[in-house]
Amino acid sequence: MNSVKKKEHIKNNLHGALAIRLLQGVAIVSLVLATPFAAFADGEPDEQMQEMQDKLAEAMAAIQALSRTVSTLQNEIAIQNAKADNPSSSETMMVELDERVEELEDTVDTIDGRVGSRAVANAFDASKLDIGGFVDIATTLAIGEDKTEAAFNREVFELLVKAKLGNSWDLFVAQAFIRNAPLRFSDPAGRRSPFFANNNSPVVTDTVIAWAQYSKSDMFNVQFGRFITPHGIINIEHFPANLLDPEQPQFLRPFPAQTIFANFSDGLHVHGSKYVGNNKFSYNAYAAAWAGNSSNINVGGRLAYSFEDAGLTFGLNGTYGDRSSTRDANFAVLGADVLFQKGRWTWKNEVYVTDEEGAASKYAFYTMPAYKLTDKWTAFYRFDYLDTGALGGESFENALGLTFRPIFNTHLRGIYRWRRATSDAGIPAADTHVFQLSTTFNF
Amino acid sequence: MLNMFSKFALTSTVLVFMLFTSVDARAETYAVVVNAENGFSGDDGALRTQIKRLYLKEQSTWPGGQDAVPFGREDGSPAQLAFMKSVLGMIDSEFAGHWLKLKQIRGETPPRGIGSARILSRQIGKKPGAFGVVLASEAATIEGGKILFEFSTD
Predict the structure, then answer these.
(1) Least reliable range by pLDDT among A33-42, A64-73, A286-295
(2) Which residues, 6 or more positions from A352, have their beta carbon under 8 angstroms from its beta carbon?
(3) Looking at the whole model, is its pTM more than 0.80?
């Protein structure tokens, strides 16, 4: 119904009501007025006069009531006419309601598109459940002094699951399915004949991370379980999807041993952070066992301070423990890291030195500047040095890489790595040239 | 004659250029809106920094101790793009990289992105630690919410 018809309809209804009320009023007044005249003919004059006055009073009251009714009806007509003459309020309301219905329909459509007729997955006992993961694939060509080898040497699928158990409790698990053939050397000095170890081995599974966390505040969180050993920069970032070079520096290889410190720890981890103006202080402290010697507890931690405006973070790392459960092998690690991250530049640096009981000290460092060429392309270089203290244990690597992210969750990389094992006690130096293409898809 | 023609052509070009640039440069004003109970205050820089830390989940509580409940807008929407540029100071790849890192390390996910300003307003009005971004013209009508600060896209 358009507004003109609506207006006429309202008017007609109100006029009808008014006419009925007027007719009723006239009928009442006529009846009241007629009654005394009829009585006048039969009764006494005084009584008749009194009765007539009473009737007159009633008639006046009826007229006043009728007048009020008419006035009310006239007001109603005026209001309705005003509304009909100015339809903006009702039309605005209708437009707004239409918009709201459209929004709701869009929302329902979005939800329906995601769910459709499929079953909705629910967590048994978690108030929130997030699932993601990644696939990391690499193919590598290694040209050594005595041998050249190539392989599709890494296919890793990792599933990440985060469950919110309660207001302050979370659970995080990273379960990996790994087919990995790391680069090794088959010659006695371990430097001339590259090969891919376990290249035909079946897929192995590894629970990379499995921790439950209680969060009291940003400053105080406690993790129990298996967590990434909180030292440095790259080991904390850890996952291939995060890394420009999925081959971690030499001191974090072989994976997951403990050349300097282990990639993962099993135990208790307390951590937190606090902003001080524009700067941020953070800490990590842990007591945990490492791979290969689960009967020993290592204690360690990291302190870091970030100057946000300058894009600089300084970290200090330290740990103490025992590397072996079968012999006395106490050790201490001291390390420092510096991260510069501003604009297109990211520059990571870490250095570690160890003191080993019954063995030579170890020393390692790397420096890794990276420059974002465009939103999608990044170039990086890494100089990486390791001295394990063992015979022939000194080596360095120069890695040059270009990475490309065509979309956010796809990371393609091309990396050239020149590895040199230096001469030591009559063992000649040897070079290996490694070309690797890798990609990480994450969801 | 040629000179007059040149002047006319030059003037027309300038006018057309002004017309197009004025259309391109038309700036929208947005507002970051918080729950009415939120007592946090400070200068513009402090407010933006705090919102950035909470949205990016580098902090989980407001300075007063209230749990933060950040809301985003739909991916690619003008409001979300304006918020990323003017408040977070991030481009798409930086933003994606941040969440990729937090997902892998801590299992964190970005705040829920809400398409409808009305639904967002309702959430902000209901939850004490909530905040989100809406057009400044929409902000005034939010029941149970208040404007923390406004920003423009230019």
Answers:
(1) A33-42
(2) A232, A251, A260, A261, A317, A333, A334, A335, A362, A363, A364, A365
(3) no
Domain annotation covers residue B21: no
Give A87→chain B minimum CA distance, Å.
23
Q: Does position B18 have pLDDT exceeding 60, yes or no?
A: no
Q: Does residue B101 sit at the A interface (CB-CB below 8 Å)?
A: yes
Q: pLDDT at position A125, please?
A: 87
Selected for mutation to probe chain B from A131, A175, A214, A242 (highest B CB count within 10 Å) is A242
- Domain annotation covers residue B72: yes
Predicted local confidence at residue B24, as pLDDT: 45
Q: What range defines the domain where residue A247 resides?
A: 128-442
A245 and A310: one domain? yes
With respect to residue B18, please indicate whether it lies within any of the assigned structural domains. Answer: no
Chain A's closest residue to B109, CA to CA, is A130
Q: Are strands A330-342 and A312-322 parallel, antiparallel or unpaired?
A: antiparallel
Mean pLDDT throughout B130-144?
91
Burial A288-322, CB ≥16 within 10 A → b, else e = bbbeebeebbbebbbebebebeeebbebebbbebb
Interchain pair A106, B106: CB under 8 A: no
Contact B115 A107 (CB under 8 A): yes
Instruction: Locate the chain B residue with the closest alpha carbon to A407.
Output: B93
B23 at interface of A, judged by CB pairs closer than 8 A: no
Query: Domain containing B128: what range?
Result: 27-152
Per-residue pLDDT for A5 more than 80? Answer: no
Q: Is B119 on the interface with A (CB under 8 A)?
A: yes
